[in-house]
Input
Amino acid sequence: MNIFKLKGKAILSPMAGVTDAAFRILAKRYGAGLVYTELISSAALVRAINKTNYLIQTSEEEKPVGIQLFGNNAEEVVEAAKIVQDKFDFIDINCGCPAWSVIRTGSGSELLKNPEKIKIFVENLVKNVNIPITVKIRIGINDKNINAVKVAKLIEEAGASAIAVHGRTREQGYSGTANWDVISEVKSNVEIPVIGNGDVFTPEKFKECLDKSKVDGIMIARGAIGNPYIFKQISDFISTGKYSKLDNKKIFFEYLDLAKKFDINFNLIKGHAISFTKGIEKSTELRNELGKTKDIDEIIKIYDNIVNR
Ligand SMILES: Cc1cc2nc3c(=O)[nH]c(=O)nc-3n(C[C@H](O)[C@H](O)[C@H](O)COP(=O)(O)O)c2cc1C
Output
């Protein structure tokens, strides 16, 4: 399967605590070209730790869907990939996560310090796994060590099918702005598809970044939290120059139906319920009320009243 024969160039970025199976389907329904699970520990998968079961739920409706793995040991990542390769369309390796819990194990963005190790990971996966391998990176560890082009070339040599680049360094966290110049440089230095990522919150910004960088797709993370409808807004804007506003209530209930079907954990549902208030009048009050809820019925009651506010 060519994961790059996409219906849309706007892609749902992997997000821990956000991109559960229900949310991914919603993004897909509204036009996301590709969706990913959140990052999942290869070690936990291999040791069959129960906590990972809900993370690897998937369904036909969201295809093509990638599973994002992290790990510090090439054999273990291959083993984890083999466990899930029949359920997913591609495996993405996380080489960008800046969280201490991940980098202290030598995984995520820590791997950017050792590009040859990333190459070995990808070579092993390509050799032993029967679905495409992709990698998501940041542009470097800090502004003195911006090595995205070098890393991307090694990833391509190793046989990966695509690379996604978040245009920030690890040291930046989420501060400053994403450097789309480095993303463009990566795009012009490799043949495999490049997905750009960082600070795209509107259809206008999406078009600007796509036109300037010529990337094959753009991942959207924070801009999709509380608004998976952004994928429809983008495709409408590209084809007509206009787009309509999100109907928060409608989309929340659509999410809730899916969340029940996939038995999504209440705290995740509550997190989405809070996020879906984005842009609603008096949303601070609503968020406070939603924050106190203890079950789905309480959330529904609050959402039912939204129309009367
Ligand atoms: C809540 C949250 C969770 C995230 N979890 C992941 C993750 O599991 N894997 C990953 O590669 N990136 C993760 N990211 C990073 C995003 O995928 C993305 O690279 C980053 O937010 C920049 O894109 P944006 O400017 O569109 O938000 C996460 C970001 C957020 C806000």
The chain has two domains: 10-240, 248-308. The domain at 10-240 is CATH 3.20.20.70 (TIM Barrel). The two ends are 48 Å apart (CA to CA). DSSP finds 13 helices and eight strands in the chain.
